[in-house]
Amino acid sequence: MLMLTKSVLMEQGLKLIVQWVIEFAPLIAVLLQKQDEEALGKSKYLKAEDIQEFLQNVKGMIETKNSPSSFEQEKALQQQLADYHRETQLKLAAYQRETTLKSPEIHKIIDNWPLRLYPSQILESHPNSGLIPLRIFLKTPQLQIDQFGNEMPENIEIEMGLAEGMREFLNQHYSLHNQVRPTEFLAGAWENKQFHGEASIKALFGMLKSEPTLILESENDGTYLIFRMAYWGLNQDNYYYKTVARMPYKEIVYESAKERALAWKEIRDKLLALGEPIDEVNKLGGDNAINLEILEKQEKWKAHGIDASQLSLPYKVKREDFAKLWHFLINCHCLVAGWVTDTYHLVHHDVPPLLPKLLPNLMQDVTDLQLIQAIVSGYRQVYQALAEERRYWVPELALQLAESLIHLPDKSWSKDQVEYSVNSWLQLHQVTPLEGSDNLEAMKSALKIEDYEYVEKLKEYFVAIEDDESVGKVQELLRAIADLKRKYSLEHISPIYNLSEQSGKVSSVAISADGNILVSSCLDKTIKVWDLQTGEPIRTLTGNTEKIASVAISPDGKFIASGSYDSPGSNVKVWNLRTGKLLPVIFGHNNPVKFVAIDAKGQVVFSGSNKIKLWNLQTGERLCTLWHSCAVNCAAMSKDGQIIASGQSDGKIRIWHPQSGEPRRTLGGHSGEVYAVAISPDEQTLVSGGADKNIKLWHLGTGELIGNLEGHSEAVSSLTISSDGKTLVSGSADKTVKVWHLDTGKLRGTLTAHSAAVNSVALSADGKILASGSADKTIKIWQLY
Fold this sequence. Notes:
Blueprint: H1 8-42, H2 48-64, H3 71-100, H4 106-111, H5 119-123, E1 134-139, H6 158-173, E2 183-186, H7 198-208, E3 213-220, E4 225-232, E5 240-247, H8 249-273, H9 278-285, H10 287-303, H11 319-349, H12 355-362, H13 370-389, H14 394-404, H15 411-428, H16 439-442, H17 452-464, H18 468-487, E6 497-499, E7 506-511, E8 517-522, E9 527-531, E10 536-541, E11 548-553, E12 559-564, E13 569-576, E14 587-589, E15 595-598, E16 604-608, E17 611-616, E18 622-627, E19 632-637, E20 644-648, E21 652-657, E22 662-668, E23 674-679, E24 685-690, E25 695-699, E26 705-709, E27 716-721, E28 727-732, E29 737-741, E30 747-751, E31 758-763, E32 769-774, E33 779-783
Parallel strand pairs: 1-2, 1-3
Antiparallel strand pairs: 3-4, 4-5, 6-33, 7-8, 8-9, 9-10, 11-12, 12-13, 13-14, 15-16, 16-17, 17-18, 19-20, 20-21, 21-22, 23-24, 24-25, 25-26, 27-28, 28-29, 29-30, 31-32, 32-33
């Protein structure tokens, strides 16, 4: 792609884009601030009371936690709130998508529809979840080429060239298959000759308001190309439609012809100095000689006070003159598309901007830096709006922006953001630097192990800008964090809570996906619900007639499933976690239930006695039965729901296809009963433990034994794997909990606070909180750094 030139007219066009960025950035910030309230207002088809209660609870928790020790909790809650907002927006978009085509006004809208694609072709091609791409439509201008004279170069395809130039830029940096900043560029979709203006934008918005959309529209009014844009993101009540710039395209083409004439003048003067006849020289110059003659006349008239701009001067233009206009328009469109795409993915998907990295090459010959300053200022405003939503993420957000600005010519823009990032970090950690002291050095007094990732990114930034002094200071901070890790190694940590209100042995523990709730079952026939953040009990579920063997929490945090030793009868029960009420669904086995679990999608509950039964969690309908030849002690389902692994009393592990109920293979390797199984999140590794004191690692796909972990002195009773697949935790009858590196099999540490067998272990989703339940009638909560 050709770079922008130093043409005065082009500089003026860029200044108009500067004004647009200055206006558009605050609008995005306002939209960001309003999006949550708008989402709530539109979500009537959702459970509005539950949404409102959720938002109030989370915001209340954020506002009431002020101690330094709660920093990470508050930060996590703000992330949870932001994620919930985005999830709600996706649900609203899906609902709008499903209902749009049922609108009774669809036929009226189709009459004024500006695209070659029908609404259904666009709406039905879009996923209902995940990373939603920004759709970009291009309405290219129709240029009046005949006004440049009869002797025009043939095959001037500016409209096609504009679309191709944008496609090249977007495919390289923002393609549909981009995993971070996807766009879908639909250049040829516009019915160019028939539709333009706000009526077309309104028709599009009426049908596609669920689809994040950018429309770049150019219109020729005879003298100017009027460059407009329309935009809407997720769940906006209206669209943004604005003229970006008015570009005198005829003058830009003539500017190129004049530049060629001036270049010819240097050659002509050299030829004349050699004594060549003027007529011969002019013949050699061709169009350039004609243009130079016109240009020299224009300058002479100007010297005598004649305004030549009012005259129709017949400059001779070539294809290369139109090429300059062509590439100028391409770059202007790419600048706007890149900025809007960056802003959309920053607001809706937390993705840092890419355009600042591209600007130095895209604008290599532009001397006026106002456009870059406007773009940087625009990003700052959007980041500030994000910061208001997530105050505890300001240091990371500011550092993210600084990293994006590294490649720009003025390094102060990036350095200002890093300084703001560090200052924000100090304020949030309640650190006031001493007068004259360095902010990086002041960070040392409040460092925690959790700060490693942020400090490491600081180091990467200073290495990138070759600030060796700051790199040295940040390395000192990393060494301080390493010292903290050694100080708080697993061999030395103690439980942060001891939950000891049980009157019987703890049989099972489970942690909710959001990390706020712990549920435990006990052999005293009760189920307890705890606030995991404070260690305080929330409620006790009673009504069971037999001892509870196992509990599980659904991924959405709405339900608890429990399995008991009732036999025969309804020994699998489902409870509403929020209210504590028992649901009127009936699951049961003819023999005591030894375990109960819920699949990763929250749709299926499965439980085991002498067989495994799978049930629909909502309706109680039995889906499948997996028949065993002996008692089943444990089972785990893969994340995709395609595999169940069960551990048996005969020491074997059986692999099943849960939909068909057919066994896939049997694994033999344990010399005693198998009490615990777990499947890694990547669905590659199966882990098992049992009476033989060993933990075995299997390749889930082939059944090959790939490892054996030794260390427990009694039976292994429980296993759990962190959501990142890096950490394995085991509980044992030897009264200990062991934490392992799953990829290497090395032992990280042994936790020894229990006085009796550990029956159950559970990890929070972030892998930082561990709960262990024991026959000593206690539950211990550990902080794993």
